[in-house]
Amino acid sequence: MQPPIIPADENMRLQALICTGLLDTAAEPRFDRLTSLVQQCLATDIVLISLVDKNRQWFKSRQGLQACETGRDISFCGHAILGRDIFEISDASLDPRFADNPLVISAPFIRFYAGVPLHYNSQCIGTLCIIDPKPRQLTEAERQILRNFADVIEQEIADRFQEQSHQQLAASELMYRSVSEGTRIGTWQWNVQTGETVFNERWAEIVGYSLAELAPVDINTWLGLAHPDDLPGSGRLLEQHFAGQLAFYDCKCRMKHKNGHWVWVHDRGRVVSWTEDNKPLMMYGTHADITEQKHAELELKASRDQFQTLVANIPGITYRCKADKDWTMLYMSGSIDPLSGYPASDFIYNEVRSYASVIHPDDSERLDLAVGQAIKDNQSWLLQYRIIHKCGAIRWVEERGRAEYNEQGEVNFLDGFILDITEEKTLKQQLLKLTSQLPGVVYQYQQWPDGRACFPYASNNLQKIYGALPEQVKDDATFIFSKIHPDDLAGLANSIELSAANLSLWQHQYRVCLDNKKPTWVSGRATPERMPDGSTLWHGYIEDITTSKQHYLELERLNKEYKLSQQRLEMASETALIGFWQASLVTGELWWSPVIYQIFGFDENTTPSVALFKSTLHPDDKDLVTASEQRALETGLHDVVHRIIRPDGAIRWVHELARLLPVDENPDQILVGSVQDVTERMQLQQMKDAFVSTVSHELRTPLTAIKGALALLNSGKLDQVPEKLKKLMQVAGSNSDRLAQLINDLLDVDLLLAKCRLISSHCL
């Protein structure tokens, strides 16, 4: 527990508290009425006007608490007086300053506390505080109401002091009338018939003069100093006194001070002698300076006007009535006029009509029973009912009230607060109509730290999605969770816990399983709000997304297949050293796949461009590539094999193959194609060509000569050869024919392959 610290100006604060004269005084209705109103307006159990003394806090007014004081060391108010704003504790049991405070762990078991500092002579002397045994948090409107009541109580304290001053002034004035000359009361003697007047020095001092400054003095001296607006009234009072209608001349009027301002004086006098013809002769009287008293009266009136204005500006009706069948009003604020169409004066003591007469007949019996039961149980009531406006319109109101009891437990009167909720009711009906048109569910979901959960509000479409009526889950959400797909339940719970912990937006998709139906996919989104009791309340919307979810899942499957195909293509591309590219012949923009960087020998951080590509072309092949690009504009096909020079100086052969869409569909002249490193193939082709050349020239030419010689020998045109040699020569001739045929077939195959490549390129 943390005791409150002592303010630096404690001595001045205690002196101001003593000056109020409030400590250890009896209860006063002026304060008790205000605390009762606070109790009704803010629906709280305990309301106190607490004055913080040196070692205690003493309660000048209290509602809902028997104790009249507690120690300052355990007080909440001792903390509240240290600031100027409202000191609010939503749950004292969770606040380390108060968790083990005796007032928290035992009666009155404080959980919620809100205190507004009360000031007198610029010093904080105590608080107006409200206390509840349940956690709570004030709304901005409730904080303003509490602040306004504190302002009124401060004014009442000042007014009380002024009233005491007024009483003391009145007593002093009575005493002054009985003392002799030399007191602080101004005296005067007036010869009514001649006008001769005698004033004492104090009479002149009241208006800032000395008698010498006013000399010579007579009745005109007073007439010259009196306020012109007060002279007619003073004259009437004199005439009434002269006529015997008034025992004394008694008038409060203004006199002009020497410094120019007006001074209020209490002028009292009496005729002490009469002429023989019964006319007033000598008159004696006094002048008392009552400027401060008059100012106090004006301030008091202003304070009362302020209170009336405060009550009138409260967004509702405050009342006090008898506990009878007509609810006879003892007091009712003016806000009843726009609500009922009748002025408050109509209802006071049932002057014109009773409040019961404007209550809707269908609600009267219910209202009487509820209020009667609340009075019997010594509890407050909260009711909604209808009243009938003067024009016949129906208005909905919400009433909070509580009975006030005497020491014998009998009801003295009923205090309450009535608020017009017609607009709220209308908006609620409109909301119900709007939500019924939505395909999903508008809802509120509330969850407490102990795991309890419910749906305080849900639109009727809840039945379409979960198969439950809103009334079935208003107090318990168990049924809803029983319909969640088992595989999705843990994820849903985790998402709710995370949203509650961080007060972050909740979004989740999950499946709902209704009886004998396929699971449906739903999507939810809600905004969380922390409540005074520690629970979390979400405001959100849930909709059926089964169709879109199925499309998404199918798209996801196709995307996976696409990625797999892309991976296979990339693997094949890397294996075959085939890269893919896209180039614009107009803008010069160029995109390469990773393999092309490898083929061209560039780092992958290099930005490709047509200009960069052109810089890699072998000087002898630049015209070849340009010609192919020009042909592509006509044929739509770019097919060329050429050399490139890599940054390290190595020369590589590449095969470019690309297509160009028609110009009218492709204004940027974009080519999409591939690049394959064919250096090894070109080297093999060169080796093959060399081999074919060798076969053609180095083998076929000599073989032709040998074959001709053997044919000549075998023809017999030359000399006869031995039979044995003849057979050998025939075998040699036959073998040379077969070898020649083999060479021709080899050359024919190479020619055929060349033609196939040509035909294939034209087909592409």
From TrEMBL:
- Which residue stretches, if any, does this entry annotate as coiled coil? none
Query: Which domain of life does the UniProt lineage start with?
Result: Bacteria
Q: Which UniProt keywords apply?
A: Kinase, Phosphoprotein, Transferase, Two-component regulatory system
- Name listed for the protein in its UniProt record: histidine kinase
Task: Indicate the segments forming the PAS domain, all copies.
Answer: 303-378, 565-636
Reactions catalysed, semicolon-separated, are: ATP + protein L-histidine = ADP + protein N-phospho-L-histidine
Q: Which Gene3D superfamilies does the UniProt entry name for this protein?
A: 1.10.287.130, 2.10.70.100, 3.30.450.40, PAS domain
Q: What class of enzyme is it?
A: transferase
In terms of PROSITE patterns, this protein maps to: PAC, PAS
Q: Which GO terms describe its molecular function?
A: phosphorelay sensor kinase activity
* Species whose genome carries this gene: Arsukibacterium tuosuense
EC number(s) from the headed UniProt entry: 2.7.13.3
